[in-house]
Amino acid sequence: MLRFLLALTAVLMLALPMTAQVSAQVVSAQEPQKLKVATRVLEPFVVEKKGELTGFSIDLWRAIADRLKIETEFVFAKDVPSLLELVKSQQADLGIAAISVTAERDKVLDFSQPMMDSGLQILVRGDGGGGPPNPLGGLLRSVFSKAALVWLGIAALLIIIPAHIVWWLERKHPDGIVPAGEPYYPGILHALWWAAGTLATQGESMPRSWVGRIFAILWMFVGVIFVAYYTAQLTATLTVEQIQGAINGPEDLPGKKVGTIKGSTSATYLEELRSQMKPYEKITDAYGALLNREVDAVVFDSPVLLYYANTDGKGRAQVVGSVFRKQDYGIVFQRGSEWRKRVDGALLAIREDGTYQALHDKWFGVEGK
Ligand code: GLU
Questions:
Q1: Rounded to whole angstroms, what are the CA distances from 298 to 197, 253, 266, 317?
Q2: Which atom of ligand 1 is nearest to the CA of 265?
Q3: From atom 10 of ligand 1, which residue's Cα is the shortest distance away?
Q4: Nearest atom (ligand 1) to Cα of 301
Q5: What's the CA-to-centroid distance between 144 and ligand 1, angstroms?
Q6: CB 324 within 8 A of CB 295
Q7: Does residue 42's CB lie within 6 angstroms of at least one atom of ligand 1?
Q8: Is 105 a pocket residue for ligand 1 (Cβ < 6 Å)?
Q9: Which of 112, 115, 279, 369 is least crowded, fewest Cβ atoms below 10 Å from its Cβ?
Q10: What stretches of the chain show up as alpha helix (H) in DSSP?
Q11: Spatial CA neighbour of 35 closest among 62, 12, 56, 15
């Protein structure tokens, strides 16, 4: 009996840690796995509002994660190349934002099924930058520009200086430009009137004194040159305005100042096009540069630009031309990641059960509306 009891105790003692081990395994299998997901803020795909993260891609990922019963920890990147690097260097398990699938990226990383189709488009200012240029607006801007003030200053000097010379030469002449016997004031007014008329090549009268006449002839040439320069300047400004306003498609981009995002597919496109590309880190900075006239257009992902043109940019910016350089967005994984197949499965199921459509409608509006 004693032997039996001893044997039983021994068996129990051996079995106990085993059951503990088994139950630990059960718990860990039930505990949801936590994945590190790299992303980058880009409205309307990834939106950060008051510390909360939303947006089409974030909502879509949450729906996928719910299905796969996984937890998420988001890691942020400043641009797409650094996001891809986070995934490649295994600092993140996968990445989701508005990441275009390209041959170059596909060489080093794996992509999910297409998450959404996209392409590039052009955003211009809303003041007719893309449509027919507004000639009156251009004229008014030229007339009240800084350059116009400089011209006004030069014109004032070119009137005041000769007016005094002529006043001095003519003040004693009986029937000269300045009525005989008039003191400096109002005599100078006659001289100013003469100088202004001569500058505009419309002088009516001529000085009577010989020195005055020689001076007047010289001054008439100055007037002709001044008017010619001013006309040339104004014509050039108006022409440039018209050329700048005429962006209607990608064919109008070469030679223009175009804003876009560092390391994006648009940046690659603009480099090939040899336009004057200005790269920004945040799309909001590119919008600001467009409104401040630092750039003539912004080239970027069509859904991003359309969203801006319909929200914050309404009335200030507009999308012109059709979509070019079509591309698809995908979720990015390390090469050979076991997650890809599972995420693809969830993504397809979400498309089939209507969740995807509902999210698309929520962020991009109901199609055809
Ligand atoms: N879709 C573009 C790309 O993948 C731009 C995305 C972004 O800047 O976030 O290059």
A1: 47, 10, 10, 10
A2: 10
A3: 264
A4: 1
A5: 40
A6: no
A7: yes
A8: no
A9: 369
A10: 2-30, 56-68, 80-88, 103-108, 135-143, 146-170, 184-199, 210-244, 265-273, 283-291, 302-310, 339-352, 355-364
A11: 62
Q: Mutate which of 40, 106, 265, 282 to test ligand 1's pocket (most atoms within 8 Å of Cβ)?
A: 265
Residue that the structure tokens 């509002």 belong to: 49
Q: Which of 326, 269, 272 is nearest to 298 (CA)?
A: 269
Ligand 1 centre from 4 Cα, in Å?
73
Please tell me the total number of residues recorded for the chain in this structure.
369
Q: What is the atom index within ligand 1 of the atom nearest the CA of 267?
A: 10
Closest CA to 316 of 110, 128, 36: 128
Q: Which two tokens stand for residue 23?
A: 């139950």
Triad 342, 71, 79: Cα angle to 5°: 85
Element (H, E) at 247: none
Q: What is the pLDDT along the chain (369 residues), one digit of tens a residue?
A: 556 555 655 555 555 444 444 444 444 455 668 999 999 999 999 999 988 999 999 999 999 999 999 999 999 999 999 999 999 999 999 999 999 999 999 999 999 999 999 999 999 998 644 444 556 666 676 667 777 788 889 999 999 999 999 888 888 887 888 887 788 888 889 889 988 888 887 777 888 888 888 988 888 898 899 889 888 888 887 777 666 557 889 988 988 899 999 999 999 999 988 788 999 999 999 999 999 999 999 999 999 999 999 999 999 999 999 999 999 999 999 999 999 999 999 999 999 999 999 999 999 986 544
pTM of the model: 0.65
Q: What angle do CA 186, 187, 193 make, to 5 degrees?
A: 95
> Contact, 328 vs 100, CB < 8 A?
yes
Domains and CATH numbers, the chain: 25-115+330-364 (3.40.190.10), 124-133+247-326 (3.40.190.10), 138-245 (1.10.287.70)
Classified as helix, coil or strand, 323 is strand
